[in-house]
Design goal:
Blueprint lengths: L22 H28 L8 E5 L3 E7 L8 E6 L2 E8 L16 E8 L10 E5 L2 E7 L16
Antiparallel strand pairs: 1-2, 2-7, 3-4, 4-5, 6-7
Length: 161
């Protein structure tokens, strides 16, 4: 399950009547702490059970006048380790962050590895023939053009009163 990520900005430190700061900021902090606690306490014990399960990388979905733009953070992933599929109006990006070989003992790791999957349902009609994808600086950018809009035309009434 993908959860929304609130980033800083004008609402991050907004003060509301009766609250010290925006309650969602406090919730995000609590949620992050709970996630860290669960990973540190259950991570090793749940490893075999969760192995093979995909997680979702950070991504942005934006819309311009003529296309949908999906930017997914995949630092260190090679393009041959990525797969992009488009069905109807759903975009699916899958891939794998491979564990690198290390020397010495790893004391702590907070980076995710393994299979990941990102899905996005696009809100409008698309042109699947002209979808483009680029991988640059650890960010996969998929541009999905919108279907050509038809111009409005006048429809004449042929029968009736």
């Amino acid at each position: 399950m993908t959860l929304p990520v609130r980033r800083g900005g004008p609402l991050a430190e907004r003060r509301l009547p009766g609250w010290g700061t925006d309650p969602l900021t406090e919730f995000n902090d609590l949620f992050g702490r709970m996630g860290t606690l669960l990973e540190s306490t259950m991570g090793g014990a749940m490893g075999p059970m969760t192995q093979g399960m995909a997680w979702s990388p950070l991504a942005d979905l934006s819309e311009t006048d003529d296309a949908y733009l999906v930017e997914v953070e995949v630092p260190g992933v090679k393009r041959e380790d990525l797969d992009i599929e488009m069905t109807e109006r759903e975009l699916t990006i899958t891939g794998e962050f491979k564990e690198r070989e290390r020397t010495g003992m790893l004391r702590r790791s907070t980076r995710r590895t393994g299979r990941f999957e990102y899905r996005a349902a696009l809100p409008g009609d698309i042109n699947p023939e002209h979808i483009e994808a680029t991988l640059e600086g650890g960010v996969l950018t998929v541009t999905v053009p919108k279907a050509g809009t038809t111009e409005a035309r006048h429809i004449e009434i042929t029968s009736g009163h």
